[in-house]
Amino acid sequence: MVAVDSVAPAHQLGDAEFVQADIGRPAIGRLLAEYRVDTVVHLDVSGTPLGGGGRSSVKEANVIGTLQLLGACQKAPSVRRLVVKSSTNVYGSASRDPAVFTETTPAKALPSGGFAKDAVEVEGYVRGFARRRPDVAVCVLRFANILGPGADTPLAEYFSLPVLPTVLGYDPRLQFVHEEDCLDVLRIAAGEPARGTLNSGTFNIAGDGVVLLSQCARRLGSPTVPVLLPAVTWVGAALRTVGVTDFSREQIRLLTHGRVVSTVQMRETLGFHPAWTTAQTFADFARARGSGLLPPQAVAHAVDRVAETVRAPSTAYPEPSAD
Fold first, then answer.
1. What is the pTM for the complete model shown?
2. What digits encode the pLDDT tens for the residues 301-321?
3. By the 8 A CB rule, do 37 and 2 touch?
4. Which of the listed CATH numbers 3.30.70.1530, 3.20.20.80, 3.40.640.10, 3.40.50.720 matches domain 2-302?
């Protein structure tokens, strides 16, 4: 097993041998040939830059890096399996979206920028590779938003803000996948398929269930600031100013309209069953983050007090006497 990255890991990789290299450079082809690699797992498709780079460096790593890697794989006769990390962002988020996206549901409006557009382009190049190398088993994993104690994603950065900007009048449905489940499904996709399963094709990867954005805010104890929809561009710019890297218009649309995907193929064809539900994933992320400005216990107590007040008979204005 060989791990390749342009940045050295901060910890040991077990039995894997680490090679520091940029997949966007010709050296990657020599590595595939030298180690006679048969399975390639491409994870460097992300919305988070390394080393303080900006949006342009992210796009270069996502799109140009993938192109170079696919070109190297195409020329490597030893390669027999390719696994590519993608995202449910390829479906976009729009007001007339279906309630649930399947892997074959077309997007109502293709993403116009940011990481979502990168993912669409990457998948297009992967399909081209699959046509040119039909002998290679290709698996594309469309991950829902990844969360967990160690998550470092634009959405994790958003949820880490002391106050959460939201879109006035909208409470979107969200899905998450736990970082531990991501590792487990990658093992399944990279190995030989178990009996009765197939690990080539495109699969949505998400935990069971959905949560509302308002539920997330309450669980975190974070106050929200509703913003009028026409001001979404300003909100995105403001969030980028405070360090939320890829809070593009597509991310704003997600927090407006939400997105839910079907995981039937993940279970019945790929044979993967996540250990964490969407709600459990977010709860684990929230525990690691700590209490916000409004601790959840205080919010729950306040809600209970309000409910008791509403249910209790009012004595402030006694009924008028019949006399």
1. 0.85
2. 544 554 454 455 544 444 545
3. yes
4. 3.40.50.720
Which amino acid is it at 249?
Answer: R
Q: What are the CA-CA distances from residue 134 to residues 10, 131, 174, 226 (Å)?
A: 37, 6, 35, 50
Spatial separation of the C-alpha atoms in residues 234 and 203, rounded to whole Å: 34
DSSP-derived letter for residue 101 is B
Alpha-helical (H) ranges within 163-212 are: 179-190
Which phi-psi region, left, alpha or beta, contains residue 306 (left: φ > 0; alpha: ψ -120 to 50)? alpha
Contact 21, 27 (CB under 8 A): yes
Q: Provide the residue count of the chain.
A: 323
| Residue 282 CB contacts under 8 Å (≥ 6 apart), including other chains | 147, 176, 211, 216, 219
* Residues lower than pLDDT 50 in the chain: 299, 302-303, 306-307, 309-310, 314-318, 320, 323
Token pair in block for residue 50: 């390394």
Distance CA 260, CA 210 (A): 7
Query: 106-118, pLDDT tens digit by residue?
Result: 888 777 777 888 9
- Amino acid making up residue 309: T
**What was the pLDDT predicted at 308?**
55
For strands 2-5 and 17-20, give the pairing.
parallel
Return all residues near 227 (Cβ < 8 A) that are at least 6 apart: 165, 166, 167, 168, 234, 235
Cα–Cα distance measured from residue 246 to residue 257, given in angstroms and rounded to the nearest whole number: 18
Domain boundaries, the chain: 2-302
What phi, psi does 38 have (nearest 5°)?
-105, -20
Task: Classify residue 76 by burial, with Cβ atoms within 10 Å: 0-12, 13-18, 19+.
Answer: buried
d(CA 289, CA 67): 36
